[in-house]
Amino acid sequence: MSNLNTAKVVVIVFLEVFISFGLGIYGFKFLLRHTTPEKFYVEACDDGADDVLIIDRVSTEVTLSVKKDIPPSAVTRPIFGILGTIHLVAGNYLIVITKKKKIGEFFNHVIWKATDFDVLSYKKTMLHLTDIQLQDNKTFLAMINHVLSVDGFYFSTTYDLTHTLQRLSNTSPEFQEMSLLERADQRFVWNGHLLRELSAQPEVHRFALPVLHGFITMHSCSINGKYFDWILISRRSCFRAGVRYYVRGIDSEGHAANFVETEQIVHYNGSRASFVQTRGSIPLYWSQRPNLKYKPRPLINKVANHMDGFQRHFDSQVIIYGRQIIINLVNQKGSEKPLEQAFATMVSSLASGMIRYIAFDFHKECKNMRWDRLSILVDQVAEMQDELSYFLVDPAGKVLTNQEGVFRSNCMDCLDRTNVIQSLLARRSLQAQLQRLGVLHVGQKLEEQDEFEKIYKNAWADNANACAKQYAGTGALKTDFTRTGKRTQLGLIMDGWNSLIRYYKNNFSDGFRQDSIDLFLGNYSVDELDSHSPLSVPRDLKFLAVRNLYVFHIVKSILSEDRDGASSP
User: Fold this and answer.
1) Is 76 helix (H, G, I), strand (E, B) or coil?
2) Residue 379 CB-density burial (10 A; 0-12 exposed, 13-18 middle, 19+ buried)
3) pTM for the predicted model, two decimal places
């Protein structure tokens, strides 16, 4: 045996020992990727597993085999999951997870964040491409890598992250036998398009992991000497996904832009409790395209059948979640007023006993930094929240209470104002849950638990930042209140800075971001036979010349508007 082959064997043995050790600790399925010029071999490293997924780099055929079929000459690398495949100008690409970070353990299941990826070409060379095709392929690759660079991809090899605790409790034995990919809620599988080839072959599903995009944080907490796990999960929908200003309202199927399902979970002495809320764009046909103005005027489509899409949206929401308590936080004057009025009119016209509408002009009520007035809204919906209840299951698996509906909150972006309100409603639910579980004493307030309050506020602020970065390109506004319970001058300054960055990105770089998301999710497919490059669009020189004239004149208006309580997010 040559020295090279001996070294290769040593490396593989070391990796397999390391992987076996990792399995014992984390229950995580590691993989080895073996590469030859003709094929990719993906080896499952479970205890006793002999399966190997083979992807032919020429025919693109996907088959199953055994470890002995891996050629000794193959180059070996450890990977942590297959995100899927995508077709670009040069041909197919395999996307794999190369780095991950442990977020925590969820009922003895390990939850991971994917932190780095490789995009691997099936082709050995690019000599078959013209110069234009080569440049287009490079741009499409940059788009894929851009989406992958956005923080917030999560997965588990043993737990279904796409469903709430309540949905999972109402499943059949047949559902439990399904693979994670088959049973996943497709709204939240961000690599669903990338896995389309693997999903067509059930025998290879164990290699295909559904990946969630959003935010997950887990904390071990203690109150009154009683230890419990507190978990916050935000699941971004991949339907009508996109970026601020480019994607608003609903589509013909009733999918709302920037729809996020947020679940707060408590695990104490075997009992599990959860509280679910949703957010989503105002479910009408409307747009707000960037036009170099700080606040583009939203436009409601005057010819669309709004009731059709509106009813589709809420029909699906009622089926999934039950009763809908809408909390509309937009301004009730100025450019946002027509949207508020239209939303209220549609709810009235639908006349459904399952839907309740509440309008709360966030900026008017909290003008001059009177954020204590948010208690007006919390008190207004308190009785409704008690009626909705929360999900609770005892250590034996017996369901004690079900959540009968959700608060569906929105502002213009469904980011900053929305997150503030959601954190307040979630705290009220958590207060009730911890008292029911015996963690809090009768009459004890969650706000008085300083150590936990710090964890709680920071987690919700981190959730706000994650959702904002994914949709608007910057951290959230108003997080000084979420973190500290107070609105500060420094917070206003930071909001002004983030608003300035949002302005620039929304006008000058979000088109690329939107195209990248559409490519990643399969809303646009690359056709290498197309003689006209979709990327060859003449630039509007007038637009490029005047854009910078606006940037330096908006900072003062941003700060003054926020101080007066009139900023739009």
Assistant:
1) strand
2) exposed
3) 0.88
